[in-house]
C-alpha cells in the first residue's frame, strides 16, 4: 500500500535510517555520473553499502535526488556544479 502525502499530513517527515558511508559514496557517484536509474542492483554492482542498498535508495529518495522509479531528478544534477 502506497503512502500518500495526505496520509502524512500533520506528521513530521522522518528521515530514513541507513549507512552514512554508503549514502556519501552514492552522492559522490552522482557527482561523477548520471545513470538512467539508481536502485539496489545498481548500488550492488557499484559496491556501495553491501546488504544495505535499499536504505541508501531510500535516503536518495528522501533527499529528492531520485524519483519513485529511481530516476535521477534535476536536483541530483546540481551535485555536478561547483
What key attributes describe this structure?
82 residues; single chain; mainly alpha
In terms of topology, how is this protein built?
Elements: H1 20-32, H2 40-45, H3 53-62, H4 74-77
Give a written overview of the molecule:
The protein is mainly α. The protein has four helices and no strands. Helix 1 crosses helix 3. The model has no long low-confidence stretch (mean pLDDT 85).
Give a short synopsis of this structure.
The protein has 82 residues and is mainly alpha-helical. The protein is 40% helix and 0% strand.
Low-confidence stretches: none
DSSP summary, beta strand count: 0
Task: Give the helices and strands as they follow along the chain.
Answer: HHHH
Q: What is the global morphology?
A: globular
Count every helix, treating DSSP H or I runs of 4 or more residues as helices: 4
Give average pLDDT, whole number.
85
**Helix-strand makeup class:** mainly alpha
Amino acid at each position: 500500500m502506497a503512502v500518500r502525502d495526505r496520509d502524512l499530513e500533520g506528521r513530521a517527515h522522518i528521515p530514513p535510517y541507513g549507512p552514512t558511508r554508503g549514502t556519501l559514496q552514492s552522492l559522490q557517484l552522482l557527482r561523477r555520473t548520471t545513470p538512467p536509474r539508481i536502485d539496489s542492483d545498481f548500488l550492488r554492482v557499484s559496491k556501495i553499502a553491501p546488504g544495505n542498498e535499499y536504505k541508501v535508495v531510500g535516503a536518495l529518495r528522501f533527499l529528492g535526488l531520485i524519483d519513485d522509479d529511481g530516476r535521477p531528478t534535476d536536483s541530483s544534477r546540481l551535485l555536478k556544479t561547483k
